[in-house]
Amino acid sequence: MRLLVAGYTDEAIARRLGTSRRTVAAHVSRIAALLQSRSRAQLGYLIATSGLLPADEHAERDCDPLSA
Length: 68
What we know:
Blueprint: H1 2-5, H2 10-17, H3 21-35, H4 40-50, H5 59-63
């Protein structure tokens, strides 16, 4: 979820996690359904504001797609 909120595509998330894009897409789809999101942008917002992710001062830097 942290990578999704940081703006990574399913393909980029899959590469970083060492899994398939289809697996990532399935997880993203399930989370979107649970949070009743209608778009990926809305899903990122809902995850970021829901408290589902623990606060971590290094998390944003470690997940920044532009720094990779």
